[in-house]
Specification:
Elements (H helix, E strand, L loop, with lengths): L9 H10 L2 H15 L1 H16 L1 H4 L8 H13 L3 H13 L6 H9 L3 H12 L5 H7 L11 H15 L5 E3 L5 E2 L3 E8 L8 E8 L3 H21 L11 H15 L2 H14 L6 E2 L11 E5 L13 H20 L5 E5 L7 E4 L8 E4 L5 E5 H16 L2 H14 L8 H12 L2 H4 L3 H13 L7 H20 L5 H15 L1 H9 L15 H9 L2 H5 L7 H11 L7
Parallel strand pairs: 5-9
Antiparallel strand pairs: 1-3, 2-3, 3-4, 4-6, 7-10, 8-9
Helix pairs in contact: 2-3, 2-6, 3-5, 3-6, 5-11, 8-9, 11-12, 14-20, 14-21, 15-16, 15-19, 16-17, 19-20
Family: Belongs to the protein kinase superfamily. ADCK protein kinase family.
Protein name: 2-octaprenylphenol hydroxylase
Pfam families: ABC1
């Protein structure tokens, strides 16, 4: 039986690593794999890697009950990978110093697997994750992971050569940014002999990503089935493993579909055309199905920009409006939103036109669309939460759940009990309204309710953005921002609202960009629920009082 390096005491193992070349170590491991067979070798090495990376130690006591779930998940996932990738992983872990901390080992492991890389990023972006966990997982964001830029430049030139467009293109073999599946390389080109020099970037997939991802997506499905079949072992007994892992699978498929991202860039440019302070990279004609050529939005991450306090506040308002409010209260039947607004995808673009930077939104590989019907029900839910109207909450949630193709509607009493229990948690009542809305949907999804996939992606985008907003302007008030935005919309809708007072049957929420009907607005005012929403927006009370007189409702601001 060939020697298993992991069986050696650490001093002997370190000595072996120092004296044995990587090629010799690989031969030793190949002999072991040949003797055991791939399945047994994979299971054995997966156990050894888990022992060496020590995920239990990386998880703080706050999440102690999830340690077995994380440990078993990593072990099962690794046990299914190909022999070649397992050999590379084992050699890389053995090459690390014996005293390397568990967090660093886990990061090195995750960076080898796009799906684990993405899962780590999603966990780091959750606003309520323990700061100690976020502190080391955040290193998965926009790092440089050792991809050879010269290799990428060769691939780009080959792709350009196949299209006959590469004559005036100069590629700089430098990686500007690198993520779980792609890398960004700068270039400059002259579109015509008498034209000016233009600067752009190519986004290309990292070498081997499609092959690796094809393998991992299959393994991800098996991992979901493993957890589903053994759910009683873990604290999340009702957690929808199959659906959640399918969401991650869909997310990764979107990230490697460069042609789809190119279409989304064009759509985003149109969607934000009336917001000159929001910049979207423009797709360039050098793009192919295998790479995206686009404008280079030159500037630091917004969080890293040298801004004054007032500028940071204005940027927070602008960012929340662009990423959350405009999609939620859009004039379009289907509104586009950025599905991954983490700090690395939000740039400060300085120009000569203003002392304030524009905000650049990059990486549109993950985006979604909100149907008007789902937005109407979401706003209904926000109103019901504002009024503490349990019946209204149930109605909105049942409509959204059925919109998510739930085959059997949740019994009303059971749903009321779930919502009531959630509402009785003091911490939940203290959340901003938008966050409260989507936290409730998140909680109900853990109980088996199924909501539209893009609506739940929008939820993730809001939670991701919340962390950016906090770092940008800690005092940012989501409720106040919503209040200002809604009041501006209501004022714009005033002529239509007056007409619809005469035609009540036409007074439906979907007729208004604000998604609030006259009847809804009247009810909010009459029950003084609107005081809570507009408490920080006193300058907007005047228009409301005028509207109050128009509809004849007695209302005295409290």
């Amino acid at each position: 039986m060939p020697l298993n390096p992991f069986d050696l005491p650490d001093p002997m193992l370190r000595q072996m690593i120092r004296t044995m070349s990587p090629a010799a170590l690989r031969r030793q491991l190949i002999q072991m794999a040949d003797t055991l067979g791939d399945e047994a070798f994979g299971a054995r090495m997966a156990r050894e890697i888990v022992k060496r990376t020590r995920p239990d130690q990386a998880i703080p006591d706050t999440y102690a009950r999830y340690r077995s779930l994380v440990r078993d998940g990593i072990e099962f996932f690794l046990s299914q990978i190909s022999r070649r990738r397992m050999l590379d992983l084992v050699i890389s872990q053995l090459a690390m110093d014996a005293d390397t901390c568990c967090q660093e080992r886990l990061l090195a492991l995750a960076q080898r697997f796009p799906t684990l890389h993405k899962l780590g990023q999603l966990i780091a972006r959750h606003p309520d994750i323990d700061p100690a966990v976020r502190g080391w997982l955040i290193n998965l964001e926009n790092g440089l992971y050792g991809t050879n830029p010269d290799e990428l430049a060769v691939r780009i030139h080959a792709e350009l050569g196949s299209t006959g467009k590469g004559a005036n293109v100069h590629v700089t073999p430098t990686i500007l940014a690198e993520a779980s599946v792609g890398a960004v390389i700068p270039f400059h080109w002259q579109p015509s002999p008498d034209g000016s020099l233009q600067h752009g970037v190519f986004k290309v997939l990292r070498p081997g990503i499609r092959r690796h991802l094809n393998e991992e997506l299959g393994i991800l499905g098996k991992t979901a089935v493993f957890f589903h079949d053994h759910r009683t072992r873990y604290p999340l007994k009702d957690f929808r493993f199959l659906e959640i892992f399918e969401d991650v699978r869909e997310m990764m498929i979107h990230e490697i579909d460069l042609a789809a991202e190119q279409r989304l860039l064009g759509e985003a440019g149109h969607f934000y055309a009336d917001m000159p302070d929001i910049r979207i990279p423009r797709r360039l004609p050098l793009s192919t199905s295998a790479m995206t050529a686009m404008d280079h939005l030159d500037g630091p991450k917004l969080l890293d920009a040298d801004l004054t306090g007032p500028q940071r506040k204005r940027m927070a308002d602008l960012l929340f409006t662009a990423v959350v409010l405009n999609p939620l209260f859009s004039k379009y039947n289907s509104s586009l939103f950025h599905g991954d607004p983490h700090a690395g995808n939000i740039l400060a673009v300085f120009t000569d036109e203003s002392t304030d930077p524009a905000i650049g939104l990059v990486d549109w590989s993950l985006a979604g669309h909100l149907a008007r019907s789902d937005r109407v029900e979401t706003v209904h839910l926000i109103q019901a939460l504002l009024k503490n109207d349990l019946t209204g909450m149930c109605d909105a949630i049942r409509s959204l759940a059925m919109g998510g193709s739930q085959s059997t509607p949740t019994p009303r009493k059971y749903l009321r009990d779930l919502i009531s229990g959630w509402m009785h948690e003091p911490a939940n009542k203290r959340l901003p309204l938008v966050k409260q809305t989507f936290r409730l949907l998140e909680s109900l999804s853990m109980e088996g309710l199924v909501f539209p996939a893009d609506l739940m992606l929008f939820r993730k985008a809001i939670f991701t953005l919340e962390g950016v907003l906090h770092d940008l302007w800690p005092a940012f008030d989501m409720d106040a921002a919503i209040a200002c935005h809604l009041m501006a919309l209501v004022q714009q809708e005033f002529p239509l609202r007056l007409v619809n007072l005469l035609f009540p049957l036409a007074d439906r929420p979907e007729k208004y960009t604000s998604l609030i009907s006259n009847q809804d607005l009247q009810f909010l005012i009459a029950h003084q629920s609107i005081n809570a929403l507009f408490a920080s927006s006193h300058r907007l009370m005047g228009p409301l009082m005028g509207w109050n007189r128009a509809i004849g409702v007695a209302w005295c601001p409290g």
